[in-house]
Specification:
mainly alpha; two-stranded antiparallel sheet; 52% helix
Length: 223
């Protein structure tokens, strides 16, 4: 009888423990995201939207077990899951580290001079182009999250602020017509280049007819 009761309680707890809603996630983290925005001049809407997108609004395994809300890879000491993602003491630490990455790592740190703290569309495109995600639809997915949940309302935009216009067709046309060639720099390897350009080592080698992954500074790599 004891085991039956225990089993029933476990079933009941599984039913009660529902996934966190996106609205609840926003309520929980919006204040900290706004504090980061004020201190570092990156839109709170972007911070929240990237976290929602990368962590499934806090419901992903890495968010649940590692407090990792931005899909940042690295070592972890968690014994409950095997993962290539780094762990954090808290969600706030994960949020702070994301902003730190934007500020200290190239080419992300160049985005602060290009976009203001209210331009969530520019930031989304800039983060994608800087190699944060391989998916070419990543930026549009993040922007869609901002729009769906009206996250721009947390950016404290000044009255009369006019959003910069980014024509999707022009953006894709530029990608098709621009010369997609990368000049190898000292310290580069194919893994680094693949990450920067949102592709894979195998794809780079195939496109450049390479039999070896050895490269040298000054070499031109098509991507």
């Amino acid at each position: 009888m004891k085991y039956i009761v225990t089993f029933c309680l476990l079933l009941l707890s599984g039913i009660v423990a529902k996934a966190q809603t996106t609205e609840d996630y926003i309520t929980e983290h919006v204040e900290f995201a706004q504090n980061l925005m004020r201190d570092h001049k990156i839109p709170a809407s972007i911070i929240l939207a990237v976290a929602i997108h990368e962590s499934a609004a806090g419901n992903s395994r890495i968010a649940q077990y590692l407090n990792n809300h931005f899909g940042v890879k690295g070592p972890n000491n968690n014994a409950e899951i095997h993962s290539s993602y780094r762990d954090y003491e808290s969600a706030d630490e994960s949020y702070s580290h994301f902003v730190e990455i934007m500020e200290t790592r190239e080419p992300f740190n160049n985005l602060f001079a290009k976009y203001d703290q209210y331009d969530y569309k520019g930031w989304a495109r800039g983060i994608q182009r800087s190699g944060y995600a391989r998916s070419r639809s990543w930026a549009s997915q993040v922007v869609a999250v901002v729009k769906k949940y009206e996250l721009y309302q947390y950016d404290e935009r000044p009255e009369g602020y006019v959003e910069p216009v980014y024509a999707t067709s022009t953006y894709h046309r530029k990608r098709r017509t621009s010369a997609r060639v990368y000049a190898v720099k000292s310290g580069d390897n194919l893994s680094v280049i693949a990450k920067k350009k949102g592709t894979t080592i195998k794809a780079l080698m195939k496109k450049n007819g390479m039999k070896s992954n050895k490269i040298k500074p000054g070499q031109k790599i098509k991507y």
